Amino acid sequence: MKQLLLSILKYISLPFALLYGIVVFLRNKFYDWEIFTSIEFSLPVICVGNITVGGTGKSPHIEYLIELLSPMYKVATLSRGYRRHSRGFRLANDQSDAREIGDEPFQFKSKYPQIDVAVAEERMTAIPQLLQLRQDTQIILLDDAFQHRTVRAGMNIVLTDYGRRYTKDFIMPFGLLRESRSAASRADLILITKCPDTITPQEKQALIQEINPQPHQQIYFSSIQYKQLYPLTSFGVSPTKDTEILLVTGIANPSSLKEKLESQFKAVYSLSFKDHHYFSYDDLNEMNEAFQHLKSEHKIIVTTEKDAARLMLLKDKINELQLPFFAQSIGIELLFNEQDKFNQHILDFIHHYIPQVIENHVEDEHADDQLITN
User: Fold this and answer.
1) What is the arrangement of strands in the sheet containing 267-272, beginning at the earlier edge strand?
2) For the domain bounded by 228-330, which CATH number is listed?
3) Domain 2-216 has CATH 3.40.50
4) Which of 93, 221, 360, 373 is the most exposed, fewest CB within 10 Å of its CB?
5) Which residues are bridge partners to 161 per DSSP?
């Protein structure tokens, strides 16, 4: 009965989806025809986004780019700061927390203190503000800005979830697409994310045919890599295969994480909240009650790094309840031995803007060789 009702509501939404689609189509055409203005900047700007509502794995892919680029360049990220409690432009500092800048930007700043992290609703005005405050910035990574066409990024990377590809979806509210499938033609790179490790070369070719890329586009495939759990509090002991897990999440789709934990531990119980949920004392009491109901003496609470950014705003209460929280960090792996190819694709784009970095590096090496010879 519930499934039937959902199906009826979905088809009722079809006229609204058509109207929304027309509005988005015209907006994009106005940008294409240069009736609406886009601003391009003189430094490399890489946009990582999607055309689908919900999680496609943007955060670990941005972290991959940070780890690739920050050893060589001065990198900054610019996000909207979704569901933060502030407004306007903010540049993260040592006192910033998830309330001020949002959970994902706070995660970036916590893990990579060497980069600059900024948030703003309007990217077009935020980039000049960022460059004025951090004049040594060499690369800007735009988080979830594919639809924000006021800024013309030098490279657009569009992510699509292997399990719900945009090629199989429809525009909102009939489906989950923010804009039509054809919008993906603006991308330079398309990454099919969250692929199973068992994906075959034959399936790879079938998916490339399904995406049907433009001549200028490259398609890559990535999978989520779950790293070791690490403690957020001093309570509890290191987990073993006999440990029971209470999984607490406030993300769009925790199913893959739950499946991974179920393959590693004795039992996994879930307590889910809406995406980007700011936890309250009542939520912590609910977690504590659920945790106390676990029968095993070997038990911990696991959450995501993004959720940890919001949970740790209530650290005093967590310590009072002595809740043994652990965070699950994740990364990505480029499949089919294409990591070097992907990295070079990114670096070649950067070198169009900053060729002197490579040249200077080569000159320095030659100078060192001459000194050794002399």
Assistant:
1) 90-91, 116-119, 75-79, 139-143, 45-49, 155-161, 189-193, 218-231, 325-334, 299-304, 244-249, 267-272
2) 3.40.50.10700
3) yes
4) 373
5) 193
